[in-house]
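Why does this matter for the project? Reviewers at the last site visit asked to see concrete outputs rather than summary tables. In response, this paragraph embeds two records directly. Each consists of the residue sequence and, immediately after it, the corresponding structure tokens. Nothing has been edited or filtered.
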Amino acid sequence: MTDTPAASTPTPPQVVLIALFVTALVTAQLTAAKVLGFDLPVAIPYLGAELLLPGAALAYAVTFFASDCYSELYGRRAAHVVVNVAFGMNLVVLLLVWSTIAAPDSGVGVDGEQFAAVLGPSTAIVAGSLLAYLVSQNWDVYVFHRIRAYTDGEHLWLRNLASTASSQAIDTVIFVTVAFAIAPALLGTGAALPLESVLVLIVGQYLLKLAIAVVDTPAVYAVVAFVRARADADPASDRSEPVQ
């Protein structure tokens, strides 16, 4: 009988990046329904003196940081696998939350209606979030590696900024448009926001995400340098994907 080859063991940095990606993704899904408002020191044309954006923007921006680090270190194929598996796991989280909401309420602890109001995202929010995630994250990985190949592996800052900026734009437009305009109108789950309000949310969310992309570029460099130095120090260590 032929022995089955032993599977290689993922390294701690690889596991941490996957865990960070999934944790931020789930957090974004659960916080998407809240609209945040930040006072600005000066008024911005069209936006005014307050920046409005969906609550998911903060956590969701972290997913692009984690996926860019993972893409750089473990390759395009591995990154696509993580993105698409995480999409399926996000569906599992939603099913578990919805099943808990639908289960009988004992009357002890948090009120069932309050629990549902906080953790039960609307159908429109779910539709917009999942569609935006699937398209934008796969686009992020694709653009990241096209630029990596074009620049022969140089200029990490360029592929980090370009892939994140373009994918965040796609994500923002799809999510806000579907969640707050198209889905409510088609499904009758609530009042669809007028076009002006939708545009304000899109611009506000994208500005924050773009700022985070610029700020996190040094962090991407730091993570990549740390993991590569660790791999060079221990070249015999097993890992499921090579550190590139």
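We now turn to the second protein, recorded in exactly the same manner.
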Amino acid sequence: MTAAQPSRQPSIKRYLEHPRGGPTVLRIVLGTQLRKLREARGISREDAGESIRASHAKISRLELGRVGYKDRDVADLLTLYGVLDENERADFLTLARQASTPGWWHRYGDVLPSWFETLIGLEEAASVIRTYEVQFVPGLLQTEDYARAVTRLGHPRASAVEIERRVALRMARQQLLTSAEAPRVWAVMDEAALRRALGGNEVMRAQLEHLIETAALPNVTLQIAPFSVGGLAAAGGPVTILRFQEPDLPDIVYLEQLTSALYLDKADDVDNYLAVMDRLCAEAEPPGRTGRFLREILDGMKD
């Protein structure tokens, strides 16, 4: 082995032996390792792209985990990067194949846009999910009827079948909360989202009761930002921050828009949003007050 050739990648072995998070995360891990190999050899994205008969833009997408991997492309990149050990190459290729295996959510491909598919894959691997919502109850905490009302609002021209498919997907996501490796979910909700009786009073009552029950889970923390706070640190829209135990995965900020989403992973961006989230948690009612606050809203609802 020459001095320039990287040593065996322990993180690759770890993911092969203890895969977690599905193909989305495996693609990111593999892309990160390939980027490190390329940079260690001082090879440009343009030259890497030429080696697999593609553009530098495709190399960028591969390294970000945005697209799937072909065995031939991975093999050619490994050769270019000086990874010649057969066992090490086999590990990379095995991971590439696992990263191309469809996740459970692919059965909802008819109603699942690619920009949202990424979030579901990241949720599966996250150890902590922090979220702030202004208008709605967070998707992971919604009841079926409330989710149906939200879906109808966002997709007014969708058929009844499509609505039910979207609701079923949202309910399937929520199984994460009680799984064996459930992440810690820390949600801050604006009081406005709780006062707006989306779907009618009966639906909203059930949703508030569900929030009380869910907040009692050991891995769920729920805070409410009351009207009395006035201006909030995250004025403008919802924010979700995902954190992972794996050192190869940086914290990721998810910003959902009407028909797309932004995923931020640069340190400066993430640090700014983490500071905003910390301020939100400090401004909101403490978690110990959440149950009583929700009960007060329930008691004040008219029949």
